[in-house]
Amino acid sequence: MTPSNNLFASIDMGTNSFKMLIIQTDKTGKFLTIDRHKDPVCLGRGFSSSISKESLFRAVTCLKRFNQVLKANKIPPQQAICVATATVREASNVFDFKRSVLESIGFEVSVLSGEEEARFVYLGVLQFLPVFDKRVLVIDIGGGSTEFVIGERGNVVLGVSLKLGHVGLTQKFGKDWNLMEMREFVKLVIKESELAEKVKDLGGFEVVVGTSGTVRAIERAVFNGYGKEFVEGNEVLLRDCKREWKFSRGELSGVVERVCREGEEERVKRDGFFKRRSEFIVAGSVLLEEIFEAVGIEEMEVSEYALGEGVIAETLSKVFEGYDLNANARWHSAVRLATRFSGKKGIKSAAQCSSIAKEIFEGLRKWGEVAGNQINVFLDVKDLECLEAACLLHNIGLITGKKGYHKQSYHIIMVSSLRFS
C-alpha cells in the first residue's frame, strides 16, 4: 500500500467509548496525533451475551460521524483502521455486528484478541515514552477488560488480558458499592490468572506504564490534590512544567480513599472533578489499586498514547519499509511537551504550521542546490527537525494568555529541559 497522504486514522470501538485518532506521520518516525474524537457509545451498557439493537444504533450513528471526518480530511479507507475490543469479541452476535457496520458505513472491523490488544497498547506507548530499551510492563484498564503486556525493544514478552473493566465492575456491583466484595472478586480473578507468577517467572520489569483514561484521570487527581482547592494562574504553569506524569502506590491509595467516600457532598465533588468518568472512577481506581498490590508495583508512569496509536504504528511498519519504532526520540520529547500544554486545536494548528514550514524548507533546499543560484546555505535533516519542533512548540505559552505568550513558550521549554542540540 502506498499512502496517498501523510494522514492515518484509527478507530477504537471500546466497551465504554468509541475513539478516533488522526495521525500525521512519515517514514522517518515523526508521529503526531493531530485530532481526537470520542463518543460515549457505551456499547457494553446492559451487555449480557449480545450487543443490543439500541447499542448497535448508537455505534452506527457514531461511526457515520467519524466517517464524515475522515472524508473531510481526505483520508482513504486503506489508511483508516477500525478495531473492536472486549465487548465485541465477547458478543454472541459479533458477526451480525460486523456485517451491519460494513453495510452501513463500509468499515471492515478487525476484532482484536486480548493478546493483540495488549501488543498494540505497547506499540502505542513506544511512540510516546522513551522506554524502547527497557523491560516495561504496560497496563491498560478498559471498560470490559484490562490488558497487561511486558515488552522489550519492540517485542512482546508476555501478553495477558483479564475480564476486569471499570464498566463491567460497575454493572456487577452496582452503584451501592460493596467495596469489600468487589475487591475480593478482583483479587480472585487476578489470582486465577497467575499474572503475578508469570511476571515473576519472566524476571519482573524495570518500569510500569499506565495508558488508559482511568490512569490519566488518577494522575490528574494526584497532581491537583483531588479534594483540595485548585491552584490557578502562573502557579499552575510552573507546577505543570515540572510535572512528572507518574504517581506512587501511596498517592494512588490517597485518591482511592477519596473517591470511595460516601455522601452527597462527596458525590458532587467526584462528579465535578471526573466529569463523565465519575460513574466508573470508583471501580477503575479500586481495580488499579488491587493490581498494584498483586503485581508489586510501587510507581506508574503515564502515557498519552495507547491502543489507537499502536494500531497505526503497526500499519506504518507495513507501509514504510524499515520503519523504526524507536526513531526520533527527540521528536517524541517535543510531542510530549506539546501534548501537555496544547489542546486539540493547538496541536492541529501546530501540525499544519509544521507541514507548511516543511514545504518551504524543502523548496529552499532544492533551489539552493541548483547550480548558479546565489544562496550560500547548507540545510540538513537536523535543521528540518528543529524547524518542525519549533512549529510544534511556539504556541504552548498561550496556556497563560495571549500577552507575552512567546516568552512563556520559551520559559516552558527551558524549564522542561527540552534539548535539540
Automatic annotation (TrEMBL):
Q: Which residue range or ranges hold the Ppx/GppA phosphatase N-terminal domain?
A: 23-317
Q: Which Pfam families match?
A: Ppx-GppA
The Gene Ontology terms for molecular function here are: pyrophosphatase activity
The protein, known as: Exopolyphosphatase
Instruction: Tell me the lineage of the source organism.
Output: Eukaryota, Viridiplantae, Streptophyta, Embryophyta, Tracheophyta
